[in-house]
């Protein structure tokens, strides 16, 4: 069988291509010991004339990084020795804003595991296949054991960086990854990865074109981020206007909020007599002062302030000691399942039995029209229960049962910037902040006429729908 080696398109110091093409147009690999193997089934696609296939080992060397010595830790101060971690490897470069550093002593122990500005990095543990270049200022810095450096590169470094980012190379990385608790990509498997190579001048042209496209896409991404910020700011402003009574026009024919609050008190007294709810011995009535102001806001004349406990039949939270995950049955929701004014029933991670749900639901008695509010961790997200589907809650979510108040209005108004700040200011804790129910019940809410509540909800719905269309189009 006769083989024709490729014509020299560029020079490879101290190494040569092992791949040749047979006259029958099949791809073969010729090894240094003279043996030949057909690798046609490994070649993913045909390359243009003048290009060739090679393995990474034919054009570069791959060397590992190094973990800190046992018992060693990062320096509290900036030193001359940065330690590049996987978390620092961003946008195919290195993010220097949160670099960690090591002392001269620790550097001496791992000084053979540095990476140079002429090298590339590839992540090999956990997150597999992230590739990037090293900024000049990080030349000679230490490299984590969760990445390798590709060094002694015989082709254009930036061209190789582009090739290693492509889908077919990334798929090779994934196919070669050990599927264990933490996925790991072995050095030898990187070395055996197939890549296409073109003439050197064409490599430079590809890098140049790629950079133009990448800059253009980066500009688009930046503009998308700015537009997303505008969408968020617009929602923020809508809620700011809503809590001030400036979102919709006032209607003098509306029944004033003071009448609604009086009806709420009457309704709650009747329910207390019937034994359906218990009297809140700490409940009080808020009267208008001279300035009628909370949060620095002066309400319209037809509005009133009220505490949450004044307008709610009850305020409770989910289980403090939830049952273990049953794998199926009744969903057990946490704060993570409350977002974007919705209850995310398609992202359930814990389940309990029907009997366990009956016990848990005695605490909250969740019903249609209840307002759910996250009170631990990510505080202040809210949603309204819209159907009778059974679910239970963990402690991170509170259940508010509004009395004669539009639940959708309450859902939106607690997301206003003023009340969000109040929730933050009144939360407690160190590792994870939360707000106690007693404190939550004292939260002051602006109450507009009932008809105006409906108008506010409708206008927010219309505005949010258009803003969400814009936001979704940016994804």
Task: Write the SSE topology.
Elements: E1 3-4, E2 19-22, E3 27-30, E4 36-38, E5 52-55, H1 56-59, E6 61-64, E7 82-84, E8 89-90, E9 93-94, E10 100-101, H2 104-109, E11 114-115, E12 120-123, E13 131-133, E14 141-143, E15 147-151, H3 157-165, H4 167-175, E16 177-178, E17 184-185, H5 187-191, E18 194-197, H6 200-243, H7 257-273, E19 293-294, E20 297-298, E21 304-307, H8 308-311, E22 312-317, E23 330-333, E24 338-339, E25 342-343, E26 351-352, H9 354-364, E27 371-374, E28 382-384, E29 392-393, E30 397-402, H10 407-413, H11 417-425, H12 437-441, E31 444-447, H13 450-473
Parallel strand pairs: 7-14, 23-29
Antiparallel strand pairs: 1-2, 2-3, 3-4, 5-18, 6-15, 7-10, 8-9, 11-14, 12-13, 12-15, 16-17, 19-20, 21-31, 22-30, 23-26, 24-25, 27-28, 27-30
Textual characterization of the structure:
With 475 residues, the protein is an alpha+beta fold. The chain has a domain at 244-473: Alpha-Beta Complex (Adenine-n6-DNA-methyltransferase TaqI, Chain A, domain 2), CATH 3.90.220. 32% of the residues lie in helices and 21% in strands. The protein is built from 13 helices and 31 strands. Helix 6 packs antiparallel against helix 13. Residues 1-17 have low confidence and may be disordered.
Give me some keywords for this one:
about 475 residues, alpha+beta, Adenine-n6-DNA-methyltransferase TaqI, Chain A, domain 2, four-stranded antiparallel sheet, 13 helices
Arithmetic mean of pLDDT: 89
User: What's the assembly state of these chains?
Assistant: single chain
How large, in whole angstroms, is the Cα Rg?
Answer: 32 Å
Return the CATH architecture of the domain at 244-473.
Alpha-Beta Complex
From the N-terminal CA to the C-terminal CA, the straight-line distance is: 54 Å
CATH topology assignment of the domain at 244-473: Adenine-n6-DNA-methyltransferase TaqI, Chain A, domain 2
Give the class-level CATH name of the domain at 244-473.
Alpha Beta
Outline the biggest β-sheet. 4 strands, antiparallel
| CATH H-tier superfamily of the domain at 244-473 | DNA methylase specificity domains
Counting DSSP H or I runs of 4 or more residues, the number of helices is 13
Helical fraction: 25-40%
């Amino acid at each position: 069988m006769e083989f024709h080696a490729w014509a020299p398109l560029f020079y490879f110091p101290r190494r040569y291509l092992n791949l040749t093409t047979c006259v029958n147009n099949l791809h073969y690999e010729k090894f240094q010991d003279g043996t030949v193997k057909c690798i046609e089934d490994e070649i993913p696609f045909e390359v243009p004339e003048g290009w060739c296939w090679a393995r990474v080992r034919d054009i570069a060397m791959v060397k590992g990084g190094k973990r800190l010595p046992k018992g060693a830790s990062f320096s509290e101060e900036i030193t001359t020795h940065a330690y590049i971690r996987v978390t620092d490897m961003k946008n195919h470069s290195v993010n220097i804003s949160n670099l960690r550093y090591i002392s001269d002593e620790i550097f001496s122990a791992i000084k053979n595991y540095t990476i140079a500005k002429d090298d590339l990095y590839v992540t090999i543990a956990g997150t597999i296949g992230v590739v990037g270049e090293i900024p000049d200022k990080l030349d000679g810095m230490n490299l984590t054991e969760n990445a390798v450096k590709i060094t002694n590169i015989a082709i254009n470094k930036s061209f190789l960086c582009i090739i290693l980012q492509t889908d077919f190379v990334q798929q090779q990385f994934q196919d070669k990854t050990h599927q264990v608790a933490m996925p790991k990509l072995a050095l030898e498997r990187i070395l055996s990865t197939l890549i296409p190579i073109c003439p050197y001048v064409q490599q430079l042209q590809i890098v140049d074109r790629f950079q133009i496209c990448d800059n253009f896409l980066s500009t688009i991404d930046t503009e998308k981020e700015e537009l997303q910020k505008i969408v968020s700011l617009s929602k923020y402003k809508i809620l700011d206007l809503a809590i001030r009574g400036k979102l919709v026009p006032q209607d003098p024919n509306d029944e004033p909020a003071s009448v609604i609050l009086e009806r709420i008190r009457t309704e709650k007294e009747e329910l207390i007599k019937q034994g359906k709810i218990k009297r809140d011995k700490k409940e009080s009535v808020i009267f208008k002062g001279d300035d009628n102001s909370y949060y620095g806001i002066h309400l319209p004349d037809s509005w009133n302030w009220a505490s949450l406990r004044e307008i709610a039949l009850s305020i409770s939270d989910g289980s403090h000691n939830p049952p273990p995950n049953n794998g199926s049955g009744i969903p057990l929701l946490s704060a993570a399942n409350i977002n974007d004014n919705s209850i995310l029933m398609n992202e359930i991670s814990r389940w309990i039995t029907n009997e366990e749900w009956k016990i848990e639901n005695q605490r909250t008695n969740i019903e249609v029209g209840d307002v759910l509010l996250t009170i631990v961790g990510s505080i202040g997200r809210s949603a309204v229960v819209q159907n009778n589907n059974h679910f239970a809650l963990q402690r991170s979510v509170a259940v508010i049962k509004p009395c004669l108040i539009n639940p959708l209005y309450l859902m939106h108004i607690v997301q206003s910037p003023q009340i969000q700040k109040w929730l933050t200011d009144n939360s407690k804790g160190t590792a994870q902040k939360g707000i106690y129910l007693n404190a939550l019940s004292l939260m002051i809410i602006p109450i507009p006429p009932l008809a105006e509540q409906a108008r506010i909800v409708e206008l927010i719905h219309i505005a949010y729908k258009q803003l969400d269309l814009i936001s979704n189009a940016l994804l």
